[in-house]
Specification:
By secondary structure, the chain is an alpha/beta fold. It has 14 helices and 11 strands. It has a 4-stranded parallel sheet with strand order 8-9-10-11, with helices on one face. Strands 1-3-4 form a 3-stranded antiparallel sheet.
Length: 373
């Protein structure tokens, strides 16, 4: 079940900015972070993303980041439902900090990171798409309903890049500012807890979310309209993340996303590629994505589903440093390895079973495949 955002408390601009006393939680985190240990974890990741692990691993072994000494919380942290976090900025900040606490308690090997976690709906909410919040039973992030037909698409084109504080934008930017405020003044937190960019998706994913599945027919029926709309989605993406990075400058060279360290600034989503031919990718997508990487400082492509039919195009994108895919069983992994690790691109967060299968088959992982096992 989904609930329309206009009937949900998260629909309105968040008015409560100081609903949480963060001091005991920040004191707890600061007391449990060992800077020397964090330096060791980060350096191992840096060596991986820089391609310095091939000589340290046999050809069949993935890179597994070193873990930490488990350090349980010294206070009681609340269990926060994502719907409650969506409805209040301070609660969102505490929700994310609680995940840092869980990482420290478990001795995990993930990078300590937080984000303004408002879901895939952020960008399309600014185009007038209705945001829907999932039922509490599902516990998932929001999405949006597509615009109803081509007329709203043309109207969005007429309006151009939207006000970046419309839709969920105000909460996203206000939450980012609150993170900076909360974490400031404690050097150990400023140094080791990374605020990473919100889910801005990518031009093609936002186009599909806003247009709906009819966009796949429009590539053939209304090609110029699709080109124009993708131009808007690209400008919107660049404006949104450009504004975010102006407020929260990326760290030099290495940034975090989903607990992974990556070289570059952005994690561009390409989930919609599973439905597109290589020819469509060449004509409509590649140059626009290349522009995003060029203007925003490079980074990583993520996709769910099948993308191995277009992955041979990725190496043409200057600034692309890695690929993250979530469902290797849907992909031709021989093609994936040939077009990533064999070309010097890292594979982040690969399922350990997929890495083991490849290693058993004699695939040389070249020290460029990271797993969590």
């Amino acid at each position: 079940m989904i609930e329309p955002m206009h009937n949900h408390p998260a629909a309105t601009a968040t008015s409560t900015r100081r609903s949480v006393d963060f001091e005991p939680y920040l004191d707890d985190l600061a007391s449990r972070i060992d800077p020397d240990e964090e330096q060791r974890v980060h350096q191992a990741w840096i060596d991986f993303v820089e391609g310095r692990t091939e000589d340290r691993l046999d050809s069949a072994s993935p890179f597994v980041p070193p873990g930490r000494v488990p350090r349980p919380a010294r206070i009681e942290w609340p269990q926060i439902h994502i719907n409650d976090a969506l409805a209040d900025i301070d609660t969102m900040v505490l929700h994310q900090l609680s995940m840092v606490s869980d990482t420290l308690a478990s001795g995990s090997n993930t990078i300590l990171n937080v984000r303004t976690n408002y879901g895939v709906s952020i960008m399309t909410s600014q185009l007038g798409c209705e945001v829907v919040v999932m039922s509490r039973e599902q516990g998932n992030l929001p999405t949006t309903r597509p615009l109803a037909g081509e007329d709203p698409i043309r109207a969005a084109l007429d309006r151009g890049v939207p006000d970046l504080r419309t839709g969920q934008g105000g909460d996203v930017f206000d939450c980012g500012a609150r993170f900076e405020e909360v974490l400031s003044g404690r050097e150990v937190l400023e140094n080791w807890v990374i605020l990473y960019h919100p889910d801005a998706q990518g031009p093609i994913d936002n186009a599909e979310l806003a247009w709906g599945s009819d966009i796949f027919l429009a590539f053939y029926d209304e090609p110029q309209l699709v080109h124009d709309f993708l131009d808007l989605m690209t400008e919107h993406y660049l404006a949104f993340l450009g504004t975010w990075f102006a407020a929260h400058p990326p760290r030099a060279s290495y940034n975090a996303h989903w607990g992974m360290l990556m070289k570059g600034n952005i994690m561009l989503r390409d989930d919609s590629l599973m439905n597109l031919s290589p020819e469509i990718y060449d004509e409509y997508i590649l140059a626009r994505e290349a522009r995003c990487f060029a203007e925003l400082g490079g980074g990583v492509i993520h996709y769910c589903g099948r993308g191995s039919h277009v992955i041979d195009r990725f190496h043409r994108i200057d600034g692309l440093t890695a690929v993250n895919l979530s469902q290797p069983h849907l992909n031709d992994m021989d093609a994936v390895f040939a077009q990533t690790v064999d070309r010097g691109l890292a594979l982040l967060g690969l399922d350990p079973e997929a890495a083991a299968t490849a290693g058993d088959a004699g695939v040389n992982l070249r020290g460029r495949v990271q797993c969590w096992q």
